[in-house]
Design brief:
alpha/beta, single chain, about 35% helix, 4-stranded parallel β-sheet, 3 domains, 20 helices, Rossmann fold
């Protein structure tokens, strides 16, 4: 194989080439660095701090086998593991740090291609952002969804059912033994959320982009097919190096359009909007927030999986996984796009099964018109999003008085206060939780319904915030309000009692106060003081873009080909 990047390290009879070859031999790798073999990095994010990613441990060995059998040299290295459950204030704060780590590891070491092992919500987009910028031949492998839990004889989904059970607990309908049982059953398995959370969404969107082997994004954790697929991926990435097939050749505007339409068809997470925009900007594709809305306008919701439906991701895998979904979307997709799978998209769709189980046929969807809508107005001049498929239809057009919570601590302290002046028509507003505000834009957007309203039977209210919401969450929640309150957005100027008007059909969200009143409030506004004076959080807050621009760091985006130039290291003795 000619033209390998790694040869710059290993060729030559001088002491520099000798040092590099000796260093690789000392790592007990399979292969000979003196031969013309591609070196394949295996970026493994498995960690005992992150149960979502632990299934990746057994897949790494299979990838190594596949690389070696195809004539490559497999080299495994660890990465940050962004665990949504335990990482605070938010794994999103560290998505860009993982992207930097991946990009710089691929830049600095003698690697010709990479297999990314990722699973949890932010690990997948973080790893992909770094690999996209490094632009070496890349395949993503995910670890799959964890087994379903059972509570009181019923199958429950990870994430989606937890808020419902918490409401039952807060309303006094779930006693201590039952609550302990919920904890036991939810902690009984490894893997990503088995509902259409961000992890499953990003896996399927990545497959739609052509960065995964066909059919791999829905294979459950522990399924033997996962090991075989990992072995296949190891062999395939060696072929991609020979074909010089890189992310920059795959991630075209039509590929992103296909991925956005898949996002709507599966009822995917609103978080994917941010990640897709960030990924597109890394390759110079100008994907806009309004494109997410426009491209979904004629897309039917086909996947009956929580929170937009009733099934789990395992059920979608049984129904044929993403290829079966995309076959139903065929008239809406560009089939000329290329991916890492050796087959054409047309051939993949030809081989996909007809719809069954949780996968609806295109002529009989769960709903039409897309699942994520964009709203703008005086409260969100630069836009906000709402997952309409997980909202209450009657609340998609609503006007009510605001109650404002200034940050998460304020929310937790007051939301269940019996003296809180609130009813079902109130609009719950949460500020100070955007990219800069925390920093890191945590998934605090699904503001709890006040306990006394839950006890009275209220199950949904309009909520508005500059935070994000888990893909497993549900409700009439307007998210990603931009500009965020911490940088002077109108959300930070809302007072208790102000009327907030939401009209999703018209694409509007407005604060119904006189323009002069907003001007007076803005004149009195001062930016919140940052708690972080050093380190990654300080750097992040100084450079992070707003949600409509993907929450990437401003110096990591690549709007021109010059920005996308990957400067190689100077090869010499350290």
């Amino acid at each position: 194989m000619t033209g390998l990047r790694s040869r710059a390290w290993f060729d030559g009879d001088d002491e520099v080439g000798l040092l590099h070859r000796a260093a690789l031999r000392a790592s007990n790798v399979v292969g000979d660095p003196a031969q013309d073999q591609p070196v394949i990095g295996i970026a493994n994010s498995a960690s005992e701090l992150n149960p979502c990613n632990l299934p990746l441990t057994r897949l790494a060995a299979a990838v190594k086998q596949g690389v070696a059998q195809a004539g490559g040299i497999p080299v495994e290295f660890p990465t940050i593991s962004l665990g949504e459950d335990l990482m605070k204030p938010s794994a999103m704060l560290y998505r860009n740090l993982l992207a930097i780590e991946i990009e710089e590891t691929l830049r600095a070491y003698p690697l010709d291609g990479v297999v990314l092992l990722a699973n949890c919500d932010k690990t997948v987009p973080g790893a992909l952002l770094g690999a996209i910028s490094a632009d070496l031949p890349t395949i993503l492998i995910t670890g799959g969804a964890r087994p379903p839990a059972r509570f009181h004889g019923q199958r429950i989904g990870t994430g989606t059912d937890r808020p419902r059970l918490w409401d039952e607990r807060r309303a006094g309908r779930l006693d201590d033994p039952a609550w302990t049982e919920v904890e036991r059953v939810l902690g009984a398995g490894q893997g990503a959320c088995n509902t259409m959370g961000t992890a499953s969404t990003m896996a399927m969107v990545s497959e739609a982009l052509g960065l995964m082997l066909s059919g791999s994004s829905t294979i459950p954790a522990g399924d033997p097919r996962g090991v075989e697929l990992a072995r296949h991926a190891g062999g395939r990435v060696v072929e991609l190096v020979g074909e010089d097939r890189r992310p920059s050749t795959l991630l075209t505007r039509p590929a992103f359009a296909n991925a956005v339409r898949v996002l709507h068809a599966i009822g995917g997470s609103t978080n994917a909007v941010i990640h897709l925009i960030a990924m597109a900007r890394r390759v110079g594709v100008d994907l806009q927030l309004d494109d997410i809305d426009r491209l979904g306008g004629d897309v039917p919701l086909l996947v009956d999986v929580e929170p937009s439906g009733t099934g789990l991701v395992q059920d979608l895998d049984v129904a044929g996984g993403l290829p079966a979904v995309m076959r139903q979307l065929r008239p809406l997709l560009d089939q000329d796009v290329a991916g890492v799978d050796p087959r054409s998209l047309s051939d993949i769709l030809d081989a996909a099964p007809e719809p069954s189980g949780v996968l609806r046929p295109r002529h009989a969807p769960l709903r039409t018109g897309g699942v994520i809508s964009v709203v703008r107005g005086s409260l969100a001049p630069d836009g906000a999003v709402i997952k309409t498929s997980a909202a209450t239809p009657a609340l998609l057009r609503h006007t009510g008085p605001a109650i404002v919570f200034h940050g998460y601590a304020d929310l937790r302290a007051r939301i269940d206060d019996p003296s809180l002046t609130v009813d079902a028509d109130t609009v719950l507003v949460l500020t100070g939780c955007g990219p800069v505000g925390v920093p890191g834009m945590p998934e605090w957007g699904m503001v709890p319904i006040p306990a006394r309203l839950v006890a009275a039977g209220v199950r949904d209210m309009v909520r508005v915030t500059d935070a994000r919401m888990s893909g497993t969450s549900f409700g009439t929640v307007v998210l990603h309000v931009a500009p965020e309150s911490a940088v002077g957005g109108p959300l930070g100027l809302v007072h208790d009692g102000d009327l907030v008007s939401l009209d999703v059909t018209e694409g509007r969200i407005d604060l119904l106060v006189e323009p002069g009143e907003l001007d007076r409030r803005r004149a009195c506004w001062t930016p919140p003081a940052s708690e972080h004076l050093r380190g990654w959080p300080a750097l992040y807050a100084q450079h992070v873009n707003q949600a409509p621009d993907g929450c990437d760091l401003d110096f990591l985006t690549a709007p021109t080909s010059e920005h996308r130039r990957f400067i190689p290291p100077v090869i010499g003795r350290s």
